[in-house]
Every structure is written in structure tokens, then in C-alpha cells.
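Pinned message: reference record for Dna2/Cas4 domain-containing protein
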Amino acid sequence: MPLGGVHIKYLHHCPRQLWLYSRGYRPEQRSDLVAFGEVIDDTTFTRRRDIDLGEAKIDWVTTGAVVHETKSSRAPAPAHAAQVRHYCLLLERRGITVRGGTVHYPLIRRTTDVPWDATARAQAEDSEAQARATIAATEPPARLKRAHCRGCSYLDYCWGD
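Predicted structure (C-alpha cells):
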């Protein structure tokens, strides 16, 4: 099963979210926060072009094979770097020599560099293995503490009555 960046991001954000997403539950389409993120993506860095790899869509890649990802978040998160590492791994598997990545946070005017080396490659491969194991599980992973679910489009599924 091909894994995209969303799978890896959900794994690191909430394994239960990944498990539900892999089974076709997609409440993101009704989420105002997701819609806001799409507007941020569409209105910043407008001169760039998405790179569609089939299983994943990279926001853009600059000369020298640096992967760029734009996030509407106001704070960097480990899931964002994991997603960029996954994209680096996918490009490397296609024979591209990748230098690393950058996560852009336009709302706070910050960037975070994501290195690409043997350690990052091992982390990306480990994330893939964890994602596949989570998806293959017959029962959903435990839900996170409710405080971690603020703004999540899966909140009603996990915490609804």
C-alpha cells in the first residue's frame, strides 16, 4: 500500500487518526481548520508548483532537490518534519539525490530546516513501518488525551457520545 505524506503526518500526530483515515473516514472535508490550511497553501508561495508523486503530493522542490512544505500551523511540530523526511525518502527511491527539506510557517514567518542524512532516512523508514503496522491493526489505537485533540476534525468520532 502506498503511503503519502498525510499518512505519516497522521501517524505522528495521532495513530488513531491514521487508522481511521486509512479506512476511509475523512471528516477533514467539513473542517474549517483544514479549509483555512488550504487557503494558506493556495495563497503563499504562488509561483511554485506541486510535485505529484502519485501516493504523495509535495508542495514544491527547489533546485538541488530541497523539499518544501507549507503549514498553516503557528508552531512547528514533529509531524511536519516527519512528513518532509517521508517526501525525501520517496524522492530518493526515485533516484533523486535529496539535500534536505524546509517547512514554511507563513503565519509566523518562520521556517524549519529538515536535514536529510542516514539518521533521517532511518527515521523515515521507521515511520513507514509504524504507519503500515497501525493501518494493519484490527482495532483502532487508543485515543489521545482530550486536550491533545483540540481542533482535530476527528474529535467527534473519538469523543462524541
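Pinned by admin. Summary line: Residues 5-159 form a domain with the Lambda Exonuclease; Chain A fold (CATH 3.90.320.10).
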